[in-house]
Amino acid sequence: MASSTAANLWVLLGLGIAGVLLAAKRLRRPARPDNGAFIARLELLPPPQPPPPQARHPLTGLCFAIADAFHVSGYITSFGSLEWAKTHDAATQTSLVVSSLVDGGAMCVGKTVIDEMAFSIHGENKHFGTPTNPAAPDRVPGGCSSGSAVAVAAGIVDFSLGIDTIGGVRVPGSYCGVLAFRPSHAVVPNNGVIPVAPSLDAIGWFARDPSVLRRVGHLLLRLPYADIRQPRHFYIADDCFEMSKVHARRLTQLVTKSVEKLFGRQVLGHVNLENYLASRIPSLRNNSNGRGDKFSSLLALSRAMQFLHKYEFKDQHMEWINSVKPAVDACIVGNLSDDGELTINNSQDARKEVRAALGALLKDDGILVIPTVLGCPPKLNARELSSEDYNVQTSCLTSLASMSGCCQLMILRSKLWLCFGLRWIQADVWEGMTLIRLALASLHMDLHAFLVTVPLGTHDKCPVSVSLIARHGGDRFLLDTIQTIYATIEEQVDVLAKSNVSSKQAMSEEAAEAAKEKGNIAFKEKQWQKAINFYTEAIKLNNKVATYYSNRAAAFLELASYRQAEADCTSAIDIDPKIVKAYLRRGTAREMLGYYKEAVDDFSHALVLEPMNKTAGVAINRLKKLFP
């Protein structure tokens, strides 16, 4: 018996390893230490703990990494470029923000890869290699702070720092599936950080745990103790979610349910951001594309941000580029040409106006909910990465916080499916990584060669996220809100997970509902056959909804197709035995077919379910008079 059990265990282990190797082969990317996130390892140790009764350092026990734009004394800051490193000396002082974190009890363990000169939001780097996205290894990690996001996503550090100019923290946070925070502009000092575009730059950070995100925020923002303020308004930017390539309902469902549970439905509101901005930011009209297309305030805001980004980047770094003549990446050179349609004054005016507009909307207690990005991360070396349209559209949503200076926090909850033998179980991504590392350490296999993450609410097997935006200066309010709401979001994620509804099923259900609504409209317009076609489409997409069959039966009755109506009503009742309309419609169909006793039974059943139903009562009386 024991030998048989042992043999079974070896068989299961062999099957598990075979699955691992097969998955690794399919990824077709060689595993690299630390997912290629680091360019240099170092140790900046925190000071000793103060003697009791003084409190311990607030970040005690945490380790972090920094993007390769932060200076560390004695180290060369390469700014994502080997040629930059060759032409610059080692730093003589450590960045103020890094020193503050170390003094606060955290240990800095290394510098991470950024896009060349922190210019792009893709996450690719020809000098140091592109870090491997743990959430989607065949796709870009997002930039410019790619290595910092990857280091957190892979569980190497507790938190990390990055630079966010046009999305450099928020985009990789979304693509890699970790929490990301861009604070209000200029509230975190940038001493000892290489500037990209100073009026847009902000020091942001990543974490897996919202409490860590908040602890780091309280230290960097130098926030004194204060009571937590509850939000009074959550505005869902419906038009922004409609722009997204991911279905809006799945993106907003977790947030809206969590908000309703914690704060009540009355705090939820909706806004068309395109229209709101267009009416309040006249300068954006001067930043339209000039090609006769329909005006889009978000696209205009994105172009204004891109112009400021280029203008200020050239002001900071063009002298070095002209003197050294480095082999700068084509995406940088191609984006530094003059844009005659825009002016610096118009772009700066737009920035002031959008801050005022969002401030008026959100006030002190409001939060705007938008998708972080418009879709999945592009695949590695994809053509769309070099497309101007892709870059402008991707920047549509990031431009809101970059141009207004508002704080923005990206939220996402991920799950990982693990295979032990032949049994698949669900666990937190971070817990799952630890489990597999421990289980397979003796086999000397590299974890990142075969892990496949499946975040809930995924699209095309990539993580998706939403972002919360508060007014400029509302950083504490936003960090406190995510601390309050995150546990409830996790609960809603678990509810969704237990329902075992896949993304494909959810998409089918949403399409089925849309088809049903079209059928209802056609029915009201007395287009009976058109209604039947729409209801039939809904049934094909989701055959588990009784209403679809019952509604189609109503249309069949109008066309005197009584047998089809009877069959549809029977299907509806099989799914939901308490659907009153199906009993009424089947009773009508059976009466017309001459099955009077069965018709009376159906009407009587409807009357039992709804004792006050006049239609059922009238039909029973009529039939009893005709056939006593």
Explain the overall architecture.
The chain has 628 residues and is α/β, with parallel strands linked by helices. The protein folds into two domains: 33-379 and 387-416 and 463-501, Amidase signature (AS) domain (Amidase signature (AS) enzymes, Alpha-Beta Complex); 505-626, Tetratricopeptide repeat domain (Serine Threonine Protein Phosphatase 5, Tetratricopeptide repeat). The chain is built from 22 helices and 13 strands. The chain has helices spanning 2-27, 82-86, 96-103, 146-153, 170-176, 210-220, 238-243, 248-263, 273-280, 297-324, 330-333, 344-362, 388-404, 429-440, 475-498, 503-524, 528-541, 546-558, 562-575, 580-593, 596-609, 614-626, and strands at residues 38-44, 63-67, 107-112, 159-164, 179-182, 202-207, 233-237, 268-271, 366-371, 407-411, 415-420, 423-428, 466-470. The strands form two sheets. It has an eleven-stranded mixed β-sheet with strand order 1-3-2-4-6-5-10-13-9-7-8, sandwiched between helices. It has a two-stranded antiparallel ribbon with strand order 11-12. Helix 6 runs antiparallel to helix 15 (475-498) and helix 20 (580-593) packs antiparallel against helix 21 (596-609). The radius of gyration is 29 Å and the shape is elongated. It starts with a helix and ends with a helix.
